[in-house]
Amino acid sequence: MPTPTTSRTPSPAPPAPIPLTPGPRASAFQSVFSNALSHTLRACSYANFASCFPTPAKHAPEVLKSVWLQITGRVGERARAEFEQVCEERDVVRGLNELERLVGEARVRRERGEGKEDEGGERVVPIPPHTLPPESLFLAHLAPHLQQTQKELDARLRDTQAQNEDLVAQILQQRRDIEGLVEGLEAVVRDLEGANGAMGGVLGDGEMRREVLDLEAELRGAGREAKL
Fold first, then answer.
1. Are 115 and 109 in contact, with CB atoms under 8 Å apart?
2. Burial of 2 (0-12, 13-18, 19+ CB in 10 A)
């Protein structure tokens, strides 16, 4: 019975390994160190060394020169060993080779006029900065500061809008309260007007009105006698 075969999608190719052989930048770095070390050792010449020990230089120059050679050789060997140890611990050669590769790829893309793809998938050709007008360069330098200022202004605007919405809600609530009070007062006025109309019908007769006025006068007189 034949076994079913499963199709596998090819995995992406792994990135090219970074060579450990020193490239141009790593070689230049090592050359700089070697030249600096050689210059330092040449500064400590035998003449300068012998001037520090005049008596041995006069009576035993061969011995003093041998000591000088041993010291300078030891210093050079120790410096080179420490330099190689640091380069190995920090993986300097690999890092400089990777930098050389990235710079080379960027140089090739620049010469070909290639750029990055935007959100729509279209490739954007980079514009050399020296061809841009001064206004564009000026705005490019100010863009981060302007973006930060825009964010701060947007935040303040949102706070102000929220405060305005709270004030509008308070004003609307106060307006509703005032309308309720006005409606209550209008109801009281209507009740008073109805009461006045009813009292006007009761007091419409002249005799009844006179009796009320006489009663009021008697009450006032009684009040004055009580005071006396």
1. yes
2. exposed
Question: Is 115:126 a contact under the CB 8 Å cutoff?
Answer: yes
Q: 131-145 pLDDT, tens per residue?
A: 888 888 888 888 888
Contact 75, 4 (CB under 8 A): no
The runs of H, that is alpha helices, within 44-133 are 46-52, 54-59, 61-90, 92-112
Rounded Cα distance between 90 and 29, Å, is 14
- Strand (E) or helix (H) holding 33: helix 24-43
Specify which residues 123 forms β-bridges with. Answer: 117
Q: Which two tokens stand for residue 219?
A: 């009450």
pLDDT tens, position by position, 27-54: 999 999 999 999 998 888 898 888 888 8
Instruction: Give the 3-state secondary structure of residue 11.
Output: coil
